[in-house]
Design a protein that fits this description.
Blueprint: H1 9-17, H2 19-29, H3 31-40, H4 42-60, H5 69-74, H6 76-94, H7 98-124, H8 132-154, H9 177-202, H10 207-226, H11 230-255, H12 259-262, H13 271-297, H14 309-333
Helix pairs in contact: 1-10, 1-11, 2-10, 2-11, 4-11, 4-13, 6-14, 7-8, 7-10, 7-14, 8-9, 8-10, 10-11
């Protein structure tokens, strides 16, 4: 069969499909060294993983949205309305306390991460008919991501999504671990059986889709359930999510666009332009985290401005606007227009 690569086999493998496999290999080979990194070099791991991957991937969305003049002109209400809604929603949530604010934001982030894996699966299955096999793939992706989160909600973990105790309010739910474990294993078996049956019947296999689903299972299970380690969770979670997203943006919005479509963004299309693209998103990411560190967290930079509590209720939601806008916009910008019959 013709493989449904987004760009080509080499690019897709290294930047979209391989991250969970490579990260997991590094984790198993260098567990002791990773523990030392966590204990002695927390600033550098934070800078590399959180700032230069996680936050940077948020700003890569600019190249599909706010940097595209025609796109903004076409959907002004969407692109100006969502940041405003994000700030207002943040302010409203903060009135119920900072823990409520971060808990809701964490759930929105989890949903965003889950939907990204589903979205990539749909891209790689775009040439396949809408039949029962595709439905099993969809269920498999959701199982790969939702089960570890449900496990986290009921089982104390040594890491957080944003802040401590963000999911504690879910501990009061009935104990469902046994049931969802059986369901999870059953779905894995059904998906494996379906994939083998499909390969035998058609004498072919959708390589990127299969690798994407397996990688999703590995990164979420080992990152959340198997290991109970903050750096390992961050390493698997951030790299497996951020690098593929940045790669997809660059491929779809710059590399595969005609020169006349790019206008001023043509400068990013050359070999040296890739480094400029990366430099732009890293610059935005560092600026945002510098503001967070100096105005709110004061964990990595010792610059305490002592912001009053009544100011924080507006400042924190404002600083969250880029992130929340990214989460909400992602639900719109990847949708294909419905065909008019």
């Amino acid at each position: 069969m013709k493989q449904p690569w987004i760009h080509n086999a080499k690019t897709d493998w290294w930047f979209i499909l391989s991250p969970p496999f490579l990260v997991l290999l590094i984790i198993f080979l260098f567990q002791k060294q990773i523990q030392e990194l966590e204990n002695s070099y927390s600033f550098y791991t934070w800078l590399l993983l959180i700032v230069f991957v996680d936050v940077a991937h948020v700003y890569s969305t600019l190249f599909k949205t706010y940097f595209v003049k025609d796109e903004v002109q076409k959907r002004k209400l969407l692109y100006f309305g969502i940041p405003a809604i994000s700030w207002c929603l943040g302010i409203a949530l903060f009135q119920f306390g900072s823990l409520t604010f971060w808990s809701v934001l964490a759930l929105i982030a989890v949903f965003h991460f889950i939907r990204q894996q589903y979205g990539f699966m749909r891209i790689y299955a775009r040439f396949e008919p809408n039949n029962w096999q595709k439905k099993i793939d969809e269920v498999a992706v959701y199982a790969a991501t939702i089960f570890p989160m449900l496990y986290w909600f009921k089982t104390p973990r040594a890491f957080t999504w944003f802040v401590n105790n963000e999911f504690d309010w879910l501990n009061n739910l009935p104990d469902y671990i046994g049931f969802i474990t059986v369901l999870y294993v059953g779905i894995v078996i059904i998906w494996l059986g379906k994939t083998i049956f499909e390969a035998i019947k058609t004498k072919s296999i959708n390589i990127p889709k299969t690798a994407l689903i397996i990688g999703t299972y590995l990164s979420w299970y080992f990152g959340i359930v198997y290991f109970n380690n903050d750096l390992i969770f961050t390493f698997l979670n951030v790299v497996s999510h951020g690098i593929p997203y940045i790669a997809l943006i660059y491929i779809r919005e710059i590399k595969q666009k005609d020169n006349h479509q790019l206008n001023w963004m043509l400068i990013f299309k050359s070999a040296s332009g890739i480094f400029l693209f990366v430099g732009v998103i890293l610059g935005f990411a560092f600026l945002e985290e510098f503001l967070w560190e100096t105005l709110v967290w004061n964990e990595h930079f010792s610059m305490d401005f002592s912001i009053p509590e009544n100011t924080l209720q507006f400042l924190v939601p404002l600083l969250v606007v880029p992130q929340l806008t990214h989460y909400l916009l992602d639900g719109f910008i990847w949708r294909k227009p419905k065909k008019v019959s």
